[in-house]
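Hi P.,

Sorry for the delay on this. The queue was packed all week, but I finally got your sequence through. Input first:
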Amino acid sequence: MEGLVEAYLKKSGVEYYREMYLSEIEQKWNISLQYRGYKQGRGLF
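Then the structure:
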């Protein structure tokens, strides 16, 4: 059902953002979003 709604919204030209888990984002775009702590001296990122 979610796929049907998403397809309809895309066809109608509405901007639509689906909630995703970090693991889904990492897999889809092949990136790492792991938190890097202060121990490395790089601040938050």
